[in-house]
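Hi support team,

I've been running sequence recovery on a batch of backbones for a student project. Most finish fine, but this one hangs at about 90% for roughly twenty minutes before it completes. I'm not sure whether the input is malformed or the queue is just slow. I've pasted the structure tokens below so you can try to reproduce it. Let me know if you need the job ID as well.

Thanks,
M.K.
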């Protein structure tokens, strides 16, 4: 069932103004629909801006950095908590928190993320490093050596004096990859699933004490 559009009545023009659901409206027109469900709301100018921003965040084509900046705007300009943002955009609170943490990276790393030289997964791993200088240096190594996220984790462990995991990489089936991606979207962090004939293991990766605390609160329902 099509999710209702959200409109508001403008007494000056006598017309209804669309404030959320532009993509759904376009899709309805392409599908040849002449009627769509609508919710009429009385909103203030601030609420109108908030709804428009949330609609923009829910676009599938937003980059991780664009999403983080939109979350920051909701938090700072509209004074929404991470929990309130998660409810409005349909993401977990942990996912919102972890996405916002990307903005703590130095500008040089954010530029590499925006240009697609590194992925969101790379960027999240870099957050574990203690200084902007270390994060930038590791980012340059990732780009120069075309590292994947697993290799980036090993690099960060090495830089922090930790012993990296020594398990070899395996070919991941499309089904397992889909499950990992669904869990990643739900939890807001990388998840690794090892599946065999007699069971397996599920590993949830985190890169800071803050992220671990957020994950525990979400998993325990606190």
């Amino acid at each position: 069932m099509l999710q209702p559009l959200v409109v508001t009545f403008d007494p000056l023009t006598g017309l209804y103004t669309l404030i959320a659901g532009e993509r759904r409206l376009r899709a309805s027109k392409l599908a040849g629909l002449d009627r769509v469900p609508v919710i009429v709301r009385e909103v203030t100018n601030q609420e109108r801006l908030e709804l428009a921003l949330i609609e923009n965040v829910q676009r599938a084509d937003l980059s991780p950095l664009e999403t983080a900046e939109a979350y920051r705007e909701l938090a700072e300009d509209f004074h929404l908590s991470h929990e309130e943002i998660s409810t409005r955009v349909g993401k977990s609170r942990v996912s919102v928190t972890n996405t916002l943490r990307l903005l703590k990276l130095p500008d040089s790393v954010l530029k590499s993320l925006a240009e697609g030289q590194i992925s969101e997964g790379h960027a999240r791993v870099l957050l574990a490093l203690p200084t902007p200088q270390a994060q930038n240096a590791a980012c340059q190594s990732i780009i120069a050596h075309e590292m994947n996220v697993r290799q980036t984790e090993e690099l960060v462990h090495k830089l922090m004096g930790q012993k990296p995991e020594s398990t070899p990489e395996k070919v991941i089936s499309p089904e397992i990859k889909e499950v990992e991606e669904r869990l990643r979207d739900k939890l807001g962090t990388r998840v690794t699933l090892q599946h065999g004939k007699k069971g397996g293991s599920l590993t949830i990766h985190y890169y800071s004490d803050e992220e671990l605390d957020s994950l525990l609160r979400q998993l325990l329902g606190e």
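--
Follow-up from support: It reproduced on our side and the slowdown came from queue contention, not your input. The longest strand covers residues 5-10. No action needed from you.
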